[in-house]
């Protein structure tokens, strides 16, 4: 029997998956993907995230507001702390900075990020970090806010080995998505080889970024095995060893009992 994998970041509450939950869970089981974490992107969508985590014992939830979300509720610390108190909510996020889609004065984005970090420190939950074209500010704010006390993961990592080292030095894990299977993703392939095995996670970020040979199609948690296959090859180990390590890392980082 193959070692079970975890999809450490997906969005199963999105409309693309509505009414397909049993199909998705069956696909996970068939591909030895034992668990998945559904990351929050808005507070308005969070009830759907939590409902899935409550319904299925092998699904977990995170609560947060994505950095490029400009409408809807902007949470304060107390709101985040109250929502993360639920036993199936294992992290705060995704949160961070995204300078790719937005222009102008983005101080509101940086302040929201600080709010998430402060809430995570207060409640002792790890952070799920999103950063895009904002690595310098992301690392600066994490340092200023002593985010290493909460810990967490840089999800869907697309930066350089130097940025990965800085994140690792702050105490964070690095999660690799299906981008690593893309032919020209040289930088991410280097990062996958560089990050120590005990600080590595794998994810789909479904419904986005389906790995080769499914690129351009709807991504889903079962396909995290293709991510694991590629990362294992880059690290010169077997997929089973990669699965054991990344699954252990997931449960250690998020502080949950895999047998609960």
What does this structure look like?
The chain is of the alpha/beta class and 260 residues long. The protein has one domain: TIM Barrel (Alpha-Beta Barrel). It is built from nine helices and eight strands. The protein has helices at 21-30, 46-55, 77-84, 107-123, 135-144, 161-169, 186-194, 224-235, 239-254, and strands at residues 5-10, 33-38, 59-63, 89-98, 127-132, 152-154, 173-176, 200-202. Strands 1-2-3-4-5-6-7-8 form an eight-stranded parallel beta sheet. Helix 7 (186-194) links the parallel strand 7 (173-176) and strand 8 (200-202). Helix 3 packs across helix 4, helix 4 (107-123) crosses helix 5 and helix 8 packs across helix 9 (239-254). The chain is globular and about 45 Å long. The relative contact order is 0.16. The mean pLDDT is 96.
- Please indicate the count of domains: 1
Low-pLDDT stretches: none
Give the distance, in angstroms, between the N- and C-terminal Cα atoms.
21 Å
H/I helix tally = 9
Mean pLDDT across every amino acid position:
96
Which sequence of SSEs, written as H and E, runs from N to C? EHEHEHEHEHEHEHEHH
The helix content is: 25-40%
What's the helix and strand layout?
Layout (H helix, E strand, L loop, with lengths): L4 E6 L10 H10 L2 E6 L7 H10 L3 E5 L13 H8 L4 E10 L8 H17 L3 E6 L2 H10 L7 E3 L6 H9 L3 E4 L9 H9 L5 E3 L21 H12 L3 H16 L6
Parallel strand pairs: 1-2, 2-3, 3-4, 4-5, 5-6, 6-7, 7-8
């Amino acid at each position: 029997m193959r070692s079970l994998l975890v999809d450490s970041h997906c969005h199963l509450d999105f409309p693309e998956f509505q009414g397909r939950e049993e199909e998705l869970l069956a696909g996970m089981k068939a591909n030895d993907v034992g668990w998945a974490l559904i990351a929050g992107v808005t507070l308005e969508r969070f009830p759907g995230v939590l409902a899935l985590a409550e319904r299925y014992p092998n699904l977990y939830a995170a609560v947060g507001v994505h950095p490029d979300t400009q409408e809807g509720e902007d949470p304060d610390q107390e709101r985040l702390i109250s929502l993360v108190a639920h036993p199936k909510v294992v992290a705060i996020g995704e949160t961070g900075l995204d300078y790719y889609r937005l222009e102008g004065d983005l101080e509101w984005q940086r302040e929201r990020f600080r709010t998430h970090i402060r809430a995570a420190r207060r409640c002792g939950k790890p952070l799920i970090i999103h950063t895009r074209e904002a690595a310098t500010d992301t690392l600066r704010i994490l340092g200023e806010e002593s985010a290493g006390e909460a810990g967490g993961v840089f999800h869907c990592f697309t930066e350089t080995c130097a940025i990965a080292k800085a994140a690792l030095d702050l105490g964070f894990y690095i999660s690799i998505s299906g981008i690593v299977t893309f032919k020209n993703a040289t930088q991410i392939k280097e990062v996958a080889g560089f990050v120590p095995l005990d600080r590595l996670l794998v994810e789909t970020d479904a419904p986005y970024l389906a790995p080769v040979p499914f690129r351009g199609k709807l991504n889903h948690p079962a396909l995290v095995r293709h991510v694991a296959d590629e990362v294992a090859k880059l690290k010169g180990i077997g997929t089973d060893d990669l699965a054991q390590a990344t699954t252990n890392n997931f449960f250690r980082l998020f502080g949950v009992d895999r047998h609960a």
